Amino acid sequence: MTAAPRLEINLAKIGHNARTLVERLGKRGISVTGVTKAALGSVEIAATLLEAGVKRLGDSRLENIEAMQLAQLPAALTLIRSPMLSQVKRVVKHADVSCNTEIEVIKKLSLAAQRAGCIHGVILMVELGDLREGIMPDDLMDCVRETLTLPNIQFKGIGTNLACRSGVAPDGKNMALLSELADLIETTFDLKVEIVSGGNSANLEWALSGAGIGRINDLRLGEAILLGCETLHRQPLDGLHTDAIRLIAEVIEAKIKPTLPSGQIAQNAFGETAVVADRGQVTQAILAIGRQDIDPDGLQAPPGIDVMGASSDHLILESDRFELAVGAEVVFQLNYSALVRAMTSPFVSKVIATASGR
Ligand SMILES: *Cc1c(COP(=O)(O)O)cnc(C)c1O
Questions:
Q1: How far is the CA of 290 from the centre of ligand 1 (A)?
Q2: In this predicted model, what pLDDT tens digit does every residue of 283-316 receive, in sequence order?
């Protein structure tokens, strides 16, 4: 028997998704940085993305970058989260490029790169309204000027990240501003801005809409490749697989139980107070997986099965049509939140699906 719980990873489907997006964006003059953070820097997934034509690899965690560097993957590795000051030495050693917003950090990267005898690439991230990371547009030129003076630092370009903290959608206006900033840097400093990275999976709608893309020549894509959906409305993307990664968990209890708890109701394990309607007796199953391993709200169960709740180690299902016997396995599709947690949980095995891979 295969280990449970497990993530079944279908590399052929991931490759198809990546190739499709690389081709569609390629027609618009945009290359793809494949983002591996939700794959825990999986070398198999990273290699699949490269075979599918992504130009670079990006990850937010240095540990994942280190794993990919160790595997000697033939691609530039970009740290897409601002480096910690405490990690600059490791950053220049393992990442070719990092995304930055603080000149203080870039100065330290410069010192570390001088000591290590290497050149480190820097992308400056610009704040365009989502209020996560980014240099305010008015401060960008000063930051570029200082960056250009730093030894062993190579200014690679600019980027922005939207739709993560505040859900600000990429549109003609904020993308045009990024393009203008790229032009302004080129005329002011007489150089070529190599990378203009427009954003993440939330940019696909804009990038493929037929609107003028201006100077944008890169998108950093993770979720769209792994889960086959865009991320503004979480709609499946045409022609992409939404089941490239599936979660399988095992039933450890199956009983008919009442829907109403009995006894005095206080807080549950997570400080919530349950409000439950009486629906009589139901068929309830418990799976051996919990909030430590997944986000229960991010699981999509097969038809006829509902996810009712979860504690740290138990996932509770109800089913009217299915007989979920002890030992049975249930297959779920996952959203990004559930995927990230499952990938990160040491209690969930990661299994590469076979070529026949249903
Ligand atoms: C996570 C992340 C991405 C990738 O986002 P997806 O929605 O998975 O495509 C891109 N850029 C940055 C800075 C990120 O943190």
A1: 26
A2: 999 999 999 999 999 999 999 999 999 999 999 9
318 CA to middle of ligand 1, Å?
A: 34
| Nearest CA owner, ligand 1 atom 14 | 80
Q: Distance from the CA of 328 to the center of ligand 1, in angstroms?
A: 36
C-alpha separations of 64 from 41, 67, 211 in Å: 4, 5, 35
CA–CA separation, 40 and 218 (whole Å):
22
pTM for this entry = 0.95
Q: For the chain, report the end-to-end CA distance as a whole number of angstroms.
A: 17
Instruction: For residue 358, give the nearest of 243, 233, 274, 248 by alpha carbon.
Output: 243
Pocket of ligand 1 (CB under 6 A): 35, 37, 60, 80, 161, 200-201, 220-224, 231
Q: What is the pLDDT of residues 224-282, one digit of tens each?
A: 999 999 999 999 999 999 999 999 999 999 999 999 998 888 888 888 887 788 999 99
Domains of the chain (ranges; CATH) run: 10-227 (3.20.20.10), 245-353 (2.40.30)
- Short-list 154, 100, 159, CA closest to 126: 159
